[in-house]
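May I ask you to review the protein record following this short note?
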Amino acid sequence: MGEGTRPGKEYELTVRDIRTALTDTAELGGFFDVEVPDPPVRVVDAPWRPLNQLWSDPGVLAQRIADVRQRIAHRCGRGVGDIEPRVAASIMFQGTASRLLSPSIATTVTYGLLCPPSALYWQPSQEGPIPLRVGDTEAVRCGTDPSAAAHAISEHVLTEVFQPLAAAAREQVKLAPGLLWGNVASSVSGACRRLADLRPGMSQPALELGQALLELEPLRGRGEFVRPFPQLPQTAFFVRRTCCLYYRVPNNGKCGDCALLSEQTRQEQWRRAADVR
C-alpha cells in the first residue's frame, strides 16, 4: 500500500478478522499466545524485532542458540560446556517451530485464517516461549479445509520461515536436514494435539490438519499419527522417525515421540496418557 493511501473496507475487514482470531486463540496461552496491540500498529518498535532477524542476522541466531544452551545447562545442573552446541541448536529450532506453528494451526482450524509470519515480531526471553507480537496486517484466507489450510501453512510458514531458519542454523552447527524437519513434524503434532486437548470440539479438524501437513514435503516421512486404542478413536499419538538429540542432555531421558523409544516403553506411555488399563 503506497504512502498516503487509505486502506479500503476489504483490507480493514481482513485486518480485523485476523486480530480477532489471534486474540481468541491467545486465550489458550503458552505457545498459542500472540500479543495483539490495540490500536494496531504497522511498525513495532524495540525491544520487538522482526521475525526474519532470527535467520538473516547470524549474530542474533548465535545468541539464541547460546541462550538455549545456557538454559539447558542451568536446568540440568551442569556447566555450559557439558551441553553440545548442536543439541542446543536443535532444541532452539524445535521451540521456534512450536512457537510459530501453534497460533498458525489454531487460527486456521478455528477461523480459516493465517497470520503472515512477516507481520510477526519477537523479543528474546530467558524463560518460556519467546514473546510474539503482531503488526497491522491482512490475513491469509485459506479456509478450514485441511488440504487448503495445510498448503497455506506450508507456503507461508514452512517455506518462508523454516527453510531459511534451517539453512542458517546448519551454517552455525552440524545438523542433518532430516533432524530439523523431524523437529517441525513433531511441533505440528504437538500443536494439533494440544489444541485438541484445550478445545475438544476442534479435535477432529485439528488432527486432520496435522495429518494433511505431514503428507506434504518436506514433512512427509518424518513421522506419523497413530491411534493405538480403537475404543478412543480421537486419541492420537505421534511417532517421529528422527531424534531431536534431547536424550544427549545430561540426566535427561527421551521425548514421548522419540524414534529411539522401545515399543514396550511407547505402549506404556500411551496407556498412562490415555488412562487405559
In short: The first helix runs from residue 9 to 26. DSSP finds eight helices and seven strands in the chain. The radius of gyration is 19 Å. The helical segments are 9-26, 53-56, 58-76, 85-111, 146-172, 177-198, 203-214, 263-274.
